[in-house]
Structures are given as C-alpha cells and as structure tokens.
Design goal:
There is one protein chain. This protein has a four-stranded parallel beta sheet, sandwiched between helices. Strands 7-6-8-9 form a four-stranded parallel beta sheet, sandwiched between helices. 41% of the residues lie in helices and 16% in strands. By secondary structure, it is an alpha/beta fold. It contains twelve helices and 14 strands. It has two domains: 206 residues, Response regulator (Rossmann fold), CATH 3.40.50.2300; 130 residues, Rossmann fold (3-Layer(aba) Sandwich), CATH 3.40.50. β8, α8 and β9 form a beta-alpha-beta unit.
C-alpha cells in the first residue's frame, strides 16, 4: 500500500473511531442527585395543618397527578417519587423540612413549595445548594429575580401585577372609590399592598384605611368592624382562604355593603365561597388565570375533559369546586413538561435551563389566551388575568384577558 493510501486509511479509521466515541458520549445520560435511570425524586412542602391548611389539597392533587404519570409509564421511562411534607405555614418548619428533603431524601428539585414566608425562608439555602426552587406556589414578585436567585422561579401571576389590575379597574369603573384594605401581615400581604399603591399611583389617597392581621389570629372580625367605621365603600381583601371566608361572612353580618375584591389565591368556591355562604358572596370581584371546574361553560373544553377524567380515575374524592385542585394539576403538568424537555439530562442546571425556556405552554386548566412563557431573564411564567364576579354559586368572567407588568430585577 502506498504511503498516501496508508495515511488516507488511517485518517478514515480515526474519523470513524471519533464518530463512534462522540455518538456514545452524546447518548450518555447525565444525572444529579435525585435522578437515576428509573426514578426522579421531587420534594414538596405545603401546609397540611395550621392556619393555611386549606392549601393542603394542592399537595394531594399533585401526588395523585404523579401517580397517574407513573401508571402511564413515567416520564421518559422514569417514575416520579413525590415526597411531600407539612410545614404548617411556618417558616422555621419550612426550613427544617426542606433541609430534610435535600440532605436526607436527596431530591432533585424542591417543587411548588407554598407560601411567601416559607419560600423566603428557604430561598437562600436552596440557591446556595444550587437546588431548583421550582414553580414557587406564591405570587410574590421577588421570585422573578434570575440575576440574584438563578435557582428560583415562580409560576402564578405576581401579586403586584394582580393588585395593579384591581387599582386600574377601580380608577376606571369607580373613580371616587374610598378603599379599605385588609392584608396579611407578612411578605404576601405587603407585596400585594405595594402593588395596589403602585397601581393607584397619584391616586393612592383613595386608600382611606388599612388593617393588617396575623395568621395566628383565630378571627379577623374586629378588623372588619374597624374598616367599616372608616366609611370606605370598597374593601380589598388580601387574605388566605380561611380569612377570606371569614371576611365575606362578617361583612354580611355587620351589613357592610361595600364592593369587595378578594385576592385570586382565595377564590375557591369550595374552600372560600361556600363556607362564607353563597348569599354573602354575591357581587364579590376577583381575577383569575385558570378555569373553574364547576362552571358549565367548560363542559366541552378538551383540557377540562382531561382534568375531569383525571379526577374520576385518580382522585375521585376531590372537591371539583376547589380551585386548589385546578392549581395543583396545572403546576404538576408544568413540571411534567419540564422533565420531558430535559430528556436524559436530568442535571439541576438543565432543569433550570428548560424551566427558563417555556414557549406558549398551555396546561389544560388555564383560561383561553393565558399562556406560560419564560426566558433566561423572565422567571414569571404566568402574567395574565381576567376579571370575574361571583354570581349564584360560581364565578362569571368578564372583560378581556389582561397582561400584568412584572418587574424584573
């Protein structure tokens, strides 16, 4: 064989060897702690007990959703092991439970942890550990801060965006409103209150009274009596479900006929409006981004049919009128999408990369026109809401889907 031919053969042999090696490398699976060929461990905390225990249904819904996924073969052949603990809506308890999830259970991510105080308490720890704090179950604006907290990403619309929408609505529809505000005395309430004042801007003097309450209080009755005495004709209720129901009921008891706007985290028909008494909730306003399973207008909706089929088979005891069930399903479906996008690269860095690369994703349960979009500089997946009014035993949507502005840091 001539030298040139030998060199050519050697070249092609080397090239083929390189190609085979490269193909092998490309096919190699990548895992961080919490992922294997057969399993992905997902950590979760929610208040199954305590003053915000109404939210515990979210964890139960997500558990049922992942059981469905597992029965259908898992995600890319891997089963989901969903480990959910009670933090009782207590920040110290949240820290304890999340440390257990990361250091003992060795989860890949902490998913959909609920509550602004709890998530605030665990945020620095998870970011220092480079563990994804994925799709946080609170609308605090600060979850959209990828430059300072690259391992934390929100899910639902921000409280400030929602509050600005209410301020704009009132300035247009009730320009002479005298507004009273009842808010929870923590990061949730204060974040929302800031958005409200920013929304009113130069007309912030429309807010004539403010009352804060502690989650440890058994009742907010005395706060309602004080706010009524202010002479306000609008009450904005920045409350979690237990206190939202108390507020609606107490306003009726003291015959305070102010227009009431309630935060969308407390619009559940089953957990808020029914306990408050349907007769007391007539005309209450809010805004939302998800469908209501009890609303007949969605009976032929393909997404709602899938949701109801899931409940029939995997969670038959669920209260279909409870919006927390809808919430848990939508969040779990979003996580499933991310894990599918990750393929065989189940590293924590790739989880965050894919979470920041959602384009017009539409879970079955979101309102038409509401889509999930993220980018490397936008960690606010849902930024749209539609106003709604409580009538009879359900919420009636009205107006257009409104995009709220979400500040990035």
């Amino acid at each position: 064989m001539r030298p040139a031919t030998i060199r050519s053969a050697a070249f092609w042999t080397a090239l083929i060897t390189f190609a085979v090696a490269s193909g092998s490398a490309l096919a190699q699976k990548k895992y961080d702690t919490g992922a294997t060929d057969t399993e992905v461990r997902i950590g979760h905390i929610v208040p199954y007990s305590g003053p915000a225990s109404a939210y515990g249904i979210i964890g139960k819904t997500e558990e049922a959703y992942f059981k469905m996924i597992n029965e259908n073969g898992g995600i890319n052949g891997r089963k989901i092991r969903f480990i959910s603990y009670d933090d009782a809506y207590s920040p110290p308890k949240a820290v304890e439970q999340v440390r257990k999830l990361v250091e003992s259970d060795e989860v890949l991510v902490v998913f959909n942890a609920l509550g602004t105080p709890s998530n605030t308490a665990i945020q620095k720890y998870l970011n220092a550990k480079k563990v994804p704090q994925l799709f946080v179950a609170t609308g605090a604006t600060k979850w959209n801060d990828p430059s300072h907290f690259p391992w934390t990403i929100g899910w639902q619309p921000s409280y400030q965006s929602e509050a600005r929408i209410y301020a704009k609505f009132l300035m247009k529809e009730k320009p002479d409103a005298k507004v009273a505000v009842l808010y929870q005395n923590d990061d949730f309430g204060k974040d929302y209150l800031k958005g409200l004042k920013d929304g009113f801007a130069a007309k912030a003097s429309a807010i004539v009274a403010e009352e804060s309450y502690e989650v440890s209080e058994p009742t907010i009755d005395n706060h309602i009596v004080k706010l009524k005495a202010s002479g306000a004709d609008v009450l904005i209720s920045i409350t979690t479900p237990k206190f939202a129901a108390q507020t609606i009921k107490k306003m009726a008891e003291v015959d305070w006929k102010a227009l009431q706007i309630v935060a969308n985290v407390s619009t559940s028909v089953g957990a808020v409006m029914r306990p408050a008494g349907f007769e007391n909730g007539q005309g209450v306003l809010s805004a939302h981004y998800a469908k209501d399973a009890g609303d007949a207008q969605w009976k032929d909706d393909p997404g709602m049919k899938k949701f109801l089929a899931f409940l029939d088979k995997h969670y038959p005891d669920a209260d279909r009128t409870n919006s927390q069930v809808i919430y848990g399903y939508g969040a779990a479906q979003t996580l499933t999408k991310i894990l599918e996008m990750c393929g065989d690269d189940l590293t924590r860095a790739n989880i965050m990369k894919q979470a920041a690369n959602l384009k017009d994703f539409t879970p079955d349960t979101l309102l038409p026109g509401v889509k999930i979009n993220t980018s490397a500089t936008d960690f606010a997946p849902i930024e749209q809401l539609q106003m709604m009014r409580f009538k009879g035993e359900k919420w009636d949507l009205f107006g257009e889907v409104i995009s709220g502005e979400t500040a990035t840091h």
